[in-house]
Amino acid sequence: MTEQTRRAFLTSAVTLGTAAVAAAAVPSASEPAIPKLVHHVFFWLKNPDSQADRDALIAGIRTLGQIETVRAIHVGVPASTEKRDVVENSYHVSELLCFDDVEGQNIYQKHPLHLEFVKNCSHLWSKVVVYDVMEA
Known about the structure:
Blueprint lengths: L2 H23 L11 E9 L5 H13 L8 E5 L16 E7 L2 H9 L1 H10 L3 E10 L2
Antiparallel strand pairs: 1-3, 1-4, 2-3
Helix pairs in contact: 2-4
């Protein structure tokens, strides 16, 4: 390979590599944008050994996905990952909701389905911790 051909090849490779990295960093039109506000709630059950209570809470949380400003919902329980000092897994159920903005989250807080969830399920938990996070 001549010096000129080698230089042209390297220049092309660097240009293509940079373009590929830039394209990967920007969501395509077919990929939904990640919502800007995440509402993460952790619940501790009053009766942690009750599968029925856990199931009732999970079913109640799932109804919140019907609220029009909720863009994504994830309901979960602690994962069986490696036990480390930095891992908090004393909760029993978690809910992760995504919103486009603070206004969407405010609508959710006052929505009849959310108020009904609190009314119907608050007797199940002894503690709730909420983390609301905005995109930086």
